[in-house]
């Protein structure tokens, strides 16, 4: 199995080479930039790319995904010092061809990550796995609803129509509808069902109250 090392830290590369040298049926090549990597990646043969995304010359995660779609036989092992939870969530959701291990991980975990990648299996180190399980979503961290919007969202989640909410709050239909549009915009949703899921996750509505 050919392993491509796409990392610009000399000491990291040396450590990876040391590990790979002791793996049977594996060899490695060092690539210094994106152009070199694209020239050397095989189209039809399985391979592994160990890459420090934060130091390499990919513009963004979308560009990385496009390359991964082009070279479908490659398994990508992202090996960095720091990755955001948003980035990790997107990688986890987008493709099974990506694994993540942090440079601070124990040697045994780094070795295991490479072994998994060689076999074509997905691997997330303990730190990333804990981030994915316990961290709140970016949307929930950033969304700030006003007190009125929160109250209207709760009414929506409980199945009340815009007209019913307006009557309950002694407001006009137009006012409540404007709040509704603002809630959808802030949450990044398009339907009451999606907004309700947020309300449940945020604890604004008790699941026992929700019958829809």
Your description of this structure?
- Helix 8 crosses helix 10, helix 8 crosses helix 11 (192-201) and helix 9 (162-169) crosses helix 10 (173-187).
- With 212 residues, the protein is α/β, with parallel strands linked by helices.
- The protein has helices at 10-21, 34-40, 61-70, 85-94, 107-118, 126-134, 138-142, 147-157, 162-169, 173-187, 192-201, and strands at residues 2-6, 27-30, 47-51, 74-80, 98-102.
- The relative contact order is 0.09.
- The model has no long low-confidence stretch (mean pLDDT 85).
Short structural summary:
The chain contains eleven helices and five strands; from the N terminus they run E-H-E-H-E-H-E-H-E-H-H-H-H-H-H-H.
Give a quick set of tags describing it:
elongated; 5 strands; alpha/beta; 12% strand; five-stranded parallel beta sheet; 212 residues
Shape field: elongated
Query: Major sheet: size, sense and barrel closure?
Result: 5 strands, parallel
The SSE order reads EHEHEHEHEHHHHHHH
Radius of gyration: 23 Å
Walk me through the topology.
Layout: E1 2-6, H1 10-21, E2 27-30, H2 34-40, E3 47-51, H3 61-70, E4 74-80, H4 85-94, E5 98-102, H5 107-118, H6 126-134, H7 138-142, H8 147-157, H9 162-169, H10 173-187, H11 192-201
Parallel strand pairs: 1-2, 1-3, 3-4, 4-5
Helix pairs in contact: 8-10, 8-11, 9-10
